[in-house]
Amino acid sequence: MTKSKDKNACDNPATKVAHLGRDPGAQHGFVNPPVYRGSTVLFPTFDKLRSREQDYTYGRRATPTTRALEEAICQLEGGAETILVGSGYQAVTTAILAFLKSGDHILVTDSAYDPTRKFCDYMLAKLGVETEYYDPTIGSEIATLVRDNTRLIFTESPGSQTFEIQDIPAIAKVAQAKDLWLLMDNTWATPLYFQPLGLGVDVSIQACTKYLVGHADAMLGAITSTTRAAKYVDNAKETLGTTPGSEETYLGLRGLRTLQVRLDRHQASALHIARWLEARDEVAQVIHPGLKSHPGHAIWARDFKGASGLFGIVLKPVDTDALARFLDDLKFFGMGYSWGGFESLIVPVLPGNYRTATTWAPDGPTLRLHIGLEDVEDLKADLEAGFARMATRS
Ligand SMILES: *Cc1c(COP(=O)(O)O)cnc(C)c1O
Prior knowledge:
This protein is 37% helix and 15% strand.
């Protein structure tokens, strides 16, 4: 074991993110691993070529850069193995495909990331796999939906547009009793604020594009598995040919080093603004699991170590022009998809358009906010000016 690895043997997440996946001794003392760009890996002898007994055999499989980040994420998630893929969405599709065959039935939370649903409704349907959506708050009642051909339960907690907290331990109990694979999209909390594998989940999926990369400058995904699940995910990676880019992987490693401080700041600012919004007349509802008013708050407090910077609000009914006046001239909140970067974002979302097992039909528009790393007083002033514009007759 190298010196840097000894240092890595610690339990504190803030220390872990600073030290995991690094081995300066192996790279002339330089603090960060280099970006290995490569396809061909040479074998020194015919014997080695035949046996493939060397650490690296082909660029698509692994490089020292990908291994460094995989090892770090794996330790943060408490898994047996992590593989990196080219995007969070590819992590979702690769992980789901790993366990299925034609004729299977799967249970997917109604709050799942919309492209995840599209994959199920289009690609899985084409392959002869039936998807059934369930109420995210179903808990142990999910047992009533399990059929003889049910293979897998997919969870996402909280949902990234509607923020329902799922009772993962209750669902895990059912999955274990019925011998089903349990997958979770853990992007919102990251492994620093939620550790699915410790609560009975087999596979934890991370859209690293969001908080891990943290600067809105790369696409990257990770799949972390238990020992039991790892060989299925490995086979899927090999046969589907998923692979992350070298630079993107490096940006993931770079983002990882500041993940704890960034998340803690996102958490504090988002809670501050969520509470401020709860007291505003324009707002009908704030949907943030860290608030006592959230229906999933008790489960969140039991299972999560924190809340990230993403939450929702429902405005009191306003017409489209008024909503446009609010959104169009915000100074610091950008309007755009994705989240987890340093800047604040806001987008109207329409969960009612895709949900099938549950309804989403509030009287006013639903908005999703990502609270970035800016000064909270500036952010509040920005929103306040938006509310004032919303109230003026145009
Ligand atoms: C963004 C997102 C993904 C997909 O990640 P990409 O890297 O954008 O492909 C998956 N799940 C959730 C919850 C997300 O928010």
